[in-house]
Amino acid sequence: MSEDSGKKLTMVTCSAPVNIAVIKYWGKRDEELILPINSSLSVTLHQDQLKTTTTVACSRSFQEDRIWLNGKEEDITQPRLQSCLREIRRLARKRRSDGEADVDTAGLSHKVHICSVNNFPTAAGLASSAAGYACLVYTLSRVMGVEGELSVVSRQGSGSACRSMYGGFVQWIMGQQGDGKDSLAQQVEPETHWPELRVLVLVVSAERKPVGSTSGMQTSVETSSLLKHRADSVVPARMKEMIEAVHKRDFTAFAELTMKDSNQFHATCLDTYPPIFYLNDVSRRVINLVHRYNRHYRETKVAYTFDAGPNAVIYTLQQNVEEFVQVVKHLFPPETNGGQFLKGLPVAPTTLSEELKQAIGMEPMVKGISYIISTKVHRHTHIHTYTHAYIHTYIHTYIHTYIHTYIHTYIHTYTHTHTHTHTHTHRQHPPGPLPVSCASLRVGVVEGFGERA
Question: Are residues 276 and 387 part of one domain?
Answer without folding.
Answer: no
